[in-house]
Amino acid sequence: MDVLAQEGVDGSAFIWVHADAEPDSGLRREAGRRGAWIELDGVDPSSPQRHIGIIDELLHAELINQVLISQDAGWYSVGEPRGGSPRSYEKLLTGFVPALADSGIGQAVVQRLLKGNPGRALEPKIRTV
Question: Is residue 44 in a domain?
């Protein structure tokens, strides 16, 4: 983030993919405060609590506007012949989103995660400070 700022690039030009893999939640919050997009990959309805916990943490840190979610690859598994077996792409919507709702995260936040934030993150524009 320091290098981006030194080069005159706004933090919103950076999407931190797999930010959910970072064990230090403080680093996620700091990057979000500096404008970076915090992308949570690999959301899966079979184990939603880890991702829901991170979303809840970022919501309470008032950084929900910086969060992106993804179920990640639809099929590729390193080391498996031909990349493994395909995984269905609808699980984000049919499994994870209902788990979000069941956790008490409101519909407005879900819409922000699925529609509002991706639209803003991917909007073509020059992002300078």
Answer: yes
